[in-house]
Structures are given as structure tokens and as C-alpha cells.
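Checklist before submission:
- one chain only
- standard amino acids only
- sequence pasted in full

Submission:
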Amino acid sequence: HLQLVESGGGLVQPGESLTLSCVAPGDTLAPFAVAWFRQAPPEERLGISCINKNGEKTYIADSVKGRFTIARDNAQGTVTLRMNNLQLEDSAIYFCAAGDIDDFQVVTPFWIRGHGMDYWGKGILVTVSS
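Returned file contents:
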């Protein structure tokens, strides 16, 4: 059973940046596409970015396009979400998830509500506040 751990969250001011990381301690993310989701209760959890197994294909939701970037380093076993110019509405719990979905599914909203994601982290809090 793959366990995912997120790190890098915290409290920042509007306009600042954070980089979230997702790792699978003692295991590897290489066989999986990996996605980042976020949830600000009472809203539903929705996907914001996904990356395929070799890192060559990505999907970025319109809500964060131009500000957030997803990347992976399979040698290091990490998937990162670089978040620039954070805004108040970016405050949420951020989750990483992994699943065996194909490249076509990665670049479409197929996974955006969690379809195809078999493994989940516990989430990490990002708070943007002035």
C-alpha cells in the first residue's frame, strides 16, 4: 500500500510563494501519475494539477494556471507543486494523490474529482492571509 506524505505548507501573505512536495517514504512514485488536489471546506475537494509518469505531460486547472507549476523528479522520488503569487482564495488543505492513469487521462479533467487516484496523502494546510 503506497503511503504519500505532503510537506511545505504553511502561512504566507498574498503574493508570496510556497512549494509543496509529495513523497512516498520507502517506496517510489515512478509507476504512477501524481496529482494535487485542494479543499477549502465546505467546498468539495478538486484537482488542480496532474503530472504523468515520466513528467512530460501535465494538466493545470484554469484557477491556478500561470501561477502554479507541477514537476517531478523520479530519481529523488518527489513531486512538487510550486505556487507563486498566492492569493487569499488559495487557502486550503492540499492533498497529493497517485494513480495508474494514462497520459490522455492526465491531460484531461478525468481525474479532477479523484477518479483513477488510488493513493492519497493526509493533506497539508496552506493559509494565505494578510
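Reviewer check: Residues 30 and 75 are 8 Å apart (CA to CA).
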